[in-house]
Amino acid sequence: MAEGRTRAAWAEVDLDALAHNVAVLARRAAPAALCAVVKADAYGHGAVQVARTALASGAAGLAVAIVDEGLELREHGIDAPVLVLSEVMPDAAEVLVRARLTATIATLRGMQALAAAARRVGTRSKVHVKVDTGMHRVGVAPVEAPALVHAAASEPALRVEAVWTHLAVADGTTADDQAFTALQLRRFDEVVAALEQRPRLLHAANTAGAIAWPAARYDMVRCGIGMYGCAPTPAMARIPDERGAGETAGEDPAAAETAAVLAALRPVLSLKARVSAVRELDAGERPSYGRRRALPERGVVATVPIGYADGVPRRLFDTGSLVLVGGRRRPLAGTVTMDQLMVDCGPGALVAPGDEVVLIGRQGEEEIGAEDWARLLGTISYEVLCGIGPRLPRIYRGAGDR
Ligand SMILES: *Cc1c(COP(=O)(O)O)cnc(C)c1O
Fold it and tell me: What pLDDT score was predicted for residue 251?
């Protein structure tokens, strides 16, 4: 779809890197299966392409946040199991059943709506019962969970395939965080022990859990961010200048292995554009809205046709973020506008219209990661990646099907 369009800005998705990351995570989680989380258009990478590559690289199934995302996968011929990660509204149950998506249920009302939909369609619907062990977002309370599982198992139109939970601080590095994750897993184990029958699958881990919490892997892990080549938090990421070489390695072998797995992941998405205009300006000129920054010396300013409508946050200017032009890190010359931004390329810079600018990714020896933006913006790489807008074409590189 992207090919043949005229846009001089795009997101490049490296399917070979994705396949590599899936293999790394699958190996780490084994014998637990890997469920590839492709919600939010695969964190901005393109759900259909990512789903196909992940399934070809060792993922056993897929997960989405909402029914429409599951429908998109089915409409593109993807037949693998697709778990919808929250209980849907009762009026969406029939669409979910018809698309053979796997439902999450967390309430009796939701379970009954799903069973009724499955009866109307004349099929048996797979369900995963979600237990709230402390995240407090979605899920049945632990004390009520065995009864809900029993009620679902007693419905001929439903098949309980799994019981699962979600960890709130598996990526946390403090003692409090670690204790809370341990508590969540203990609550989950207690629910499972109280069931009349263990379902085929138990699952609890996101990327952080899958990498750092062996006890959380159970039968399946649900990985998103790691697949896309990012660490779950800046703190978990290896930041060479903030975490001295070998600091984690010596004392704690588990921490060393976590660091090794994160280090093995490769970024999948790059954000690129071509210079659309170049002008030489005097020292003191103040490009862009608000005239926020004076050029320190006479130099070349390049206009790049990508802006905050594409997911380049306006605030990136205030954080002093840099972009790569001609293999060098260059500051923004002023505020990011909706569709364009300006780069201060410095005195005498050899920059011409058509030159490639890298906002996220590698150019020559330099690299800027989604995690770098996240750190500057005080957020996490998830938000940066999901913010890459639908207006930008996605260009896919690599077969990604080894
Ligand atoms: C988004 C999500 C995941 C994936 O989390 P990552 O940290 O990206 O691996 C797993 N489980 C649930 C319930 C989610 O909502």
Answer: 61
Count of CB atoms situated within 10 Å of the CB of 372: 19
* pLDDT in the model for residue 252: 73
The DSSP bridge pattern shows strands 61-64 and 82-84 to be: parallel
Which residue in 218, 289, 308, 396 is the catalytic one? Answer: 289
d(CA 387, CA 402): 29
Q: Tell whether ligand 1 has an atom less than 6 A from the beta carbon of residue 222.
A: yes
Task: Spell out, as residue ranges, where the chain has pLDDT lower than 70.
Answer: 1-4, 237-251, 400-402
- State in Å: Cα 225 to ligand 1 middle: 8
- 8 A C-beta contact, residue 227 and residue 19: no
Task: Measure the CA–CA gap between 196 and 390, rounded to whole angstroms.
Answer: 47
Which residue owns the Cα nearest ligand 1 atom 10?
Answer: 206
Ligand 1 mutation pick, 128, 206, 261, max ligand atoms within 8 A of CB: 206
Q: Is 39 an active-site residue?
A: yes
Query: Are 15 and 266 spatial neighbours (Cβ–Cβ below 8 Å)?
Result: no
Domains delineated in the chain: 15-264 (3.20.20.10), 269-368 (2.40.37.10)
Q: Catalytic annotation on 126?
A: no
**Rounded to 5 degrees, what angle do the CA atoms 117, 123, 129 make?**
65
Buried/exposed code over 273-290 (b: 16+ C-beta within 10 A; e: otherwise): bbbbebeebeeebebbee
CB 51 within 8 A of CB 45: no
